[in-house]
Prior knowledge:
By secondary structure, the protein is of the alpha/beta class. 36% of the residues lie in helices and 22% in strands.
Amino acid sequence: MIYNIKRDHARFRSIVKGRIKQDLKKYVTHGEMIGRKGKDTVTIPIPQIEIPRFRFGDKDAGGVGQGEGKPGDPVGQGDEQPGQGEAGNQGADHLLEVDLTLQELAEILGEELELPKIEPRGHKTVKSKTERYTGIASEGPNSLRHFKRTFKEALKRQIATGTYNPERPVVIPVKRDLRYRSWKTEVRHENNAVIIYMMDVSGSMGDEQKEIVRTEAFWIDTWLRSQYKGIETRYIIHDATAREVDEETFFKTRESGGTLISSAYKLCEKIIETDYAPSDWNIYPFHFSDGDNWSGEDTRLCLELMDKSLLNKCNVFCYGQVESRYGSGQFYKDLKEHYGGEHDSVILSKIENKEGILQSIKDFLGKGR
């Protein structure tokens, strides 16, 4: 019975994953569909999954092959028009909420986008302890008693002492026959990583653009956390000046000043130099902007910071340009002109709207770095 329950549960989880994978684009483009988020799980609404079944109708209701009619008459068309008729007493379709671990969600994302496993660069590690049952001991708690091994020890003792009677095969263990499962603690060293999010919060970046950044950041986090045991996240907002903030402030702040992108890159460089030695950490800066910058001189300063400092310290440097009616988009053009269409450490992505989030995620994470 327990086996059947486990088998059915596993089958249900497989069906749920298939349904989420099928509708992944909908979940990505509509960030609000991801419900409660815990430390290790998220809640996702999916249409109720019903098992096909026969439904018996009214005997006199008519149907194909019943009632009066002539060849060529339309089938199933009544007199009622859309929106007409009396109120019904039947319920509508409901959504079923399921809890999914972030690891499961990352697997679905990776399979759908064909994301390669990341090859860590830094050597900073955290200790991960796992306990495995590897042997048998003569002492231990009753909850770990190994009944089969206990029975074998008792049987061996009774045969050796001549007390075993094949005609009356009763085996009674004594204290010295008891056997227990024993475990060993294994320590594994896992790679560490840090994600540094930077976002332009000047007046040209509206709520729609910030919602795109928030949604994309959730999925980037989900994938990178599945690749690294230890992940830290830092947040930088900037207009003409940059400052580090917490996650809530990052997505809710809006300023009205100008834009100096170099201020964010300088702060990013300082955070890396202070807290994240490149020899120990895998470093992922993500910068989101609508492409406006104060001047060509500041853009040249940004390129200098990237060439001389940031690109040497990071696994990849990702720039996502969120389209805005008020943004010029010039910074994307400048980066593309400077680094060309392909560069080992610089990944550029244009995000025109919510429909472009999925492709942008693939742009950023598709290199496996």
